[in-house]
Design brief:
Layout (H helix, E strand, L loop, with lengths): L3 E5 L3 H13 L3 E5 L2 H10 L4 E5 L7 H10 L6 E5 L4 H9 L4 E4 L4 H14 L10 E3 L2 E4 L4 E4 L2 E3 L3 H11 L6 E2 H7 L10 H14 L9 E4 L3 E4 L2
Parallel strand pairs: 1-2, 1-3, 3-4, 4-5
Antiparallel strand pairs: 6-7, 7-8, 8-9, 10-12, 11-12
Helix pairs in contact: 1-5, 2-3, 4-8, 6-8
């Protein structure tokens, strides 16, 4: 069955461009230009991925993303924005977006990112035993994480990043390598995505996120887990 992609943007030229390029790759597309209508469609229908503009009539992309995650709907989202400020990207990722692109963008790159995000959402190979490190416990079989034996809610991306670092315990991992191996980006990407997700891990796992003892920054390189 074809993958269904919801395209949400209020510019005809943008939706036509995205629709054409995705359908050329064999994807089925559905287009909405109104935020509230798009939210209802995403909530009540099945889509494999959402391409979501930030600025929309009636409900903006941030609101849609946030409400879908609150509704426990985890359809991957690629957010589009004409704004280039770092805070817009960070806010989008914090609200649950999986990736973002700024306008104008290359249709070829968008298609590539769609493929990468969809590939990333495939179930990872399960490991056989639990992992214990300091005050956390990870169960790769059930995709569960516990902090001092209390369950912690994780997205799949956060889980994959955590397990990747734990499997390389005490070894510094460059941001670019994390972007390639965890995000599956075979092209140069914005490594700030890594920083945002590391911040999420610290907030969820560290006893004091402002003084991390588990997930350390290696200045000029990237990150490592100690333990």
């Amino acid at each position: 069955m074809d993958r269904r992609i919801l395209i949400v943007d209020d510019e005809d030229s943008i939706t036509t461009l995205i629709e054409y390029n995705l359908e050329q790759e064999g994807y089925e597309t559905v287009v909405y230009q109104d935020g509230k209508q798009a939210y209802e469609a995403a909530k009540n229908d099945h889509f494999d991925l959402i391409v979501l503009d930030l600025m929309l009539p009636s409900m903006n992309g941030m609101e849609i993303c946030q409400k879908l995650r609150q509704d426990d709907i985890h359809t991957p989202i690629i957010m589009l924005t004409a704004k280039r400020q770092e805070q817009d990207m960070i806010t989008g990722l914090e609200y649950g977006a999986d990736d973002y692109m700024t306008k104008p963008f290359s249709p070829k790159e968008l298609v590539t990112r769609v493929k990468v995000v969809l590939r990333r959402m495939q179930p990872a190979k399960k490991l056989d035993k639990q992992i214990r490190l300091a005050h956390i416990r990870i169960d790769p079989e059930t995709y569960e994480v516990f902090k001092e034996d209390e369950p912690v809610e994780f997205t799949k991306r956060e889980f994959d990043l955590l397990v990747y670092l734990v499997n390389r315990k005490n070894k510094p991992v460059p941001r670019a390598k994390l972007l390639k191996d965890v995000w599956d980006f075979d092209f140069v990407g914005d490594t700030r995505i890594v920083d945002v997700h590391i911040s999420h891990l610290r907030e969820k796992l560290e006893l004091d996120p402002k003084k991390p003892t588990l997930i350390k920054t290696v200045r000029g390189i990237g990150y490592k887990i100690e333990g």
